[in-house]
Amino acid sequence: MKLCRLSVGTACSYQAVCCWLKEFNKGKESLSDCPRPGRPKSCANEQTIASMRKYIDAESYISVRELSDTNGLSYSTVYTIITEHLRMKKVCAPWIPHLLTVDQKRERVRCATELLKMFEPPSLQRLSDIVTGDET
Fold it and tell me: pTM above 0.70?
């Protein structure tokens, strides 16, 4: 009786013990589960994430479908790795980092500083020297 009171919440259920006994009688020698067939639930491990980064760094115009076919993963898994783990998004055609790196921030500051220097002293005539555009 003392043993039952001490093991409340930590002891296995009667059904679990019966199930184990049945497995041992069949010849099983361990309580560990056998490997299950099929792909693991989560394919987004460090190795696949690094592989995706390598492919995208090599070719930023690669499509999710191409990455999916190359790595043998589903389209949705590849898309999740790119958008959630690598924090990238598709702008027009290339994959670009969602957050700017320190070098990219420095380059933007340098370009903006050069533009400001061009406008010293400020005048409306200097506005015609700037050409703007977008990536589309």
Answer: no
